[in-house]
Amino acid sequence: MHVNRFRFWILSLLLFLYLAGVLIISAITLQDSKNKPTKPKPQYLQVSKLKHYELNFSGFKSPLPKSKINWCKELKYLVPPRPPVALASFPGSGNTWVRYLLQQSTGILTGSIYRDYSLLKNGFPAENVVNGSVLLVKTHEFGQNAKKLYSKAILLVRSPTAAIQAEFNRQSGGHVGFASPLRYKRSKGKSDWEQFVYDKLQAWKQTNLDWLYNFTGPTHVIFYEHLVDNLENNLRSMLNFLEHPISEELFNCAMERKEGIYRRKKRAIVFDPFSSKMKEKIKEEQERVYEAIYNFASPTKR
User: Fold this and answer.
1) Would you call 257 helix, strand, or coil by DSSP?
2) Mean pLDDT, the chain, whole residue set
3) Beta-sheet pairing, 219-223 with 152-157
């Protein structure tokens, strides 16, 4: 009887000591955790990172490489500012390349009515600046409200076949990427590409004719193909139209660095994406617009 009672008290004492030890250790751990700085929760999705991406048909895509543009002169704003000038074009007509050439040959920033984060981070810090502090302002818009801000305009025209395909590539692969060949194929009996061609062809015609006929300020028409074939003369003509003094040192530097990072490299595809029906319609609209340009405008001022 006494032995059992003795064992009971021994076990009770051991249990008490065990529980006391647990409580002491817990108290010490809690105190240490209070003294340590709180570790911030990881931010898995930050808004600043999203700015490096564009959302297009194919969803998020990789950002352009960090700008490695070697500018001929540090870029700056116009001082004093002057009435805004438009650089108007249908998308895919080489607008970004023209902005690059003008920035290289003048050292003056160009603006845009858009806020393209890939361009903002890669050579065009005046994206979304729409006033006379920039050399000119990029726009793809047309209509009465689209033109009323500007005192004069450069209208950049590219053949509809090349411009439409360039815009299709941009929407699929970014400023220098390409659309996958699968994007041109039919899906469930319908072709997104075919509809894209007809819709954009009408937009191409409306953009060029609206700026040609309805803009009341001086207009300088530049054909993209002529710019490629004779860059020096056409770049000089744009600078003269902008009434910006030409620095031969900067101009020669711009000619040496004419390619930049925003001209899409040519890539052959193994099939012709334009059907005979598309080509017929494109030819009809192209002839109509080019005839209007040749009859109504000149490569200088009208």
Assistant:
1) coil
2) 79
3) parallel
